[in-house]
Design goal:
The protein is of the alpha/beta class and 380 residues long. The strands form two sheets. Strands 3-2-1-4-5-6-7 form a seven-stranded parallel β-sheet, sandwiched between helices. The longest helix is centred in the N-terminal third of the chain and has 19 residues, at 75-93. Helix 4 (105-117) links the parallel strand 4 and strand 5. It contains 16 helices and 13 strands.
Length: 380
């Protein structure tokens, strides 16, 4: 898509999941601090209204200007519902830019809507790749990057991936990851909540687990292996493990008649601050979430990735993460390695100023011709 010779004044933000809220919040605040008009659309891809309200409150975000309510449905239908709703919003609001973060169905629907209406797309957290095209998220992020006029890569490695796919270096910028901005802003308040004490565990003496991806929860046999891997790891160290289950994960466990291992304790889905409080004091975390990998790395907590691949190789490279796969024995082996490894790594995800940097680059770039735009090779 073309980058016009004008200054942006209205940004239309599209979010659909709670992790997107966390990561887009720094950009929204930075835009508002520069007197830019913002419109926020919530697609409803995550549709727990009570939990959403907690996130909006904790992140100090305005209520959405529009809720699409796409709900749970097949991938193609969900993307189409988002596209149609965002196109209508573009027609009504006439934004200068559409901004989306990450790799969800909401992101791809927003990207297609922007293309259909001839509005430039800003893709935050561009260039992440795991190499597994069976994952919907990988296909989503590749297409969103292809449609984006502005690609804000969190790391130099992500920028290199975009360039390797033929991306225009004039429109690809290394900014750091906005997850660091929000973590640094929220961590003091999260620690004050003392969530470990409220859940009956001692800081540094428990593990934390999250499982939510389609590949990990839809097949009962795979889910059984994941739970067995958590259980054997917890038993090895006589470690209680708190498991704040995604609603779909909890439902699949119940429908499949699976029993949780003795030391795995199911707890309700959590708000951002309570989860961050638990993560900061955990001795280890097992997760299939990209954002949790990043947050754990920044907090000095080792993580075991419950997948065969990851789009956050930087966390593995610094020694913060281990790939555990989806078999109980490989999860146990990765857990042993993670617990035994030295800590003290320097995280590779930026300096906590990514949101400000993104907005500054947008304001700078929209006022010059594409050929004159700067790019950053800075390693955050």
């Amino acid at each position: 898509m073309s980058m016009e010779h004008r200054t942006a004044r209205k940004l239309l933000f599209v979010v659909g999941t709670r992790p997107e809220l966390v990561k887009i919040a720094p950009v929204i605040r930075a835009a508002r601090s520069r007197d830019l008009s913002t419109v926020l659309i919530h697609t409803g891809q995550h549709y727990d209204d009570a939990l959403d309200a907690i996130f909006f409150q904790e992140l100090d975000l305005p209520e959405p200007d529009l809720r699409l309510g796409v709900g749970s449905c097949g991938r193609d239908r969900q993307i189409e519902r988002v596209r149609a709703g965002v196109e209508q919003a573009i027609d009504r609001e006439r934004p200068d830019l559409v901004v989306a973060q990450g790799d969800t169905n909401s992101v791809l629907g927003a990207a297609r809507a922007a293309e259909g209406r001839g509005v430039d797309l800003v893709h935050v957290e561009a260039g992440l790749r795991c190499g597994d095209l069976t994952m919907a998220e990988e296909r989503n992020r590749i297409e969103a990057d292809r449609l984006a006029a502005w690609s804000f890569a969190p790391t130099a490695e992500a920028r290199a991936a975009l360039l390797g796919e033929g991306g225009d270096p004039r429109r690809i910028f290394v900014t750091g990851n906005t997850v660091v901005d929000e973590l640094e802003r929220q961590l003091p308040g999260a620690r004050r909540r003392a969530a470990p004490r409220r859940f009956g565990v001692s800081p540094g003496a428990y593990g934390l687990a999250t499982i939510h991806r389609h590949e990990g929860v839809e097949d009962p046999a795979v889910l059984r292996e994941l739970l067995a891997g958590l259980g054997s790891s917890a038993e090895l160290w006589d470690l209680p493990v708190l498991f704040p289950a995604h609603p779909r994960t909890e439902r699949r466990i119940r429908e499949a008649g699976l029993e949780l291992p003795d030391r795995i304790r199911l707890v309700p889905a959590l708000g951002y601050l309570d989860f961050l409080s638990l993560l900061a004091s955990a001795t280890i975390v097992w997760t299939d979430s990209g954002g949790v990998q990043e947050e754990a790395c920044c907090l000095g907590v080792p993580s075991v990735v419950l997948r065969e691949s990851t789009e956050r190789p930087e966390a593995i490279e610094v020694g913060a993460s281990r790939l555990g796969g989806r078999r109980s024995e490989t999860i146990l082996a990765a857990s042993r390695a993670a617990r035994a490894a030295a800590r003290g790594w320097a995280h590779p995800f930026g300096d906590g100023k990514a949101g400000e940097r993104i907005v500054a680059l947008l304001l700078q770039g929209m006022a010059v011709s594409p050929a004159a735009q700067p790019h950053s090779d800075e390693k955050e």
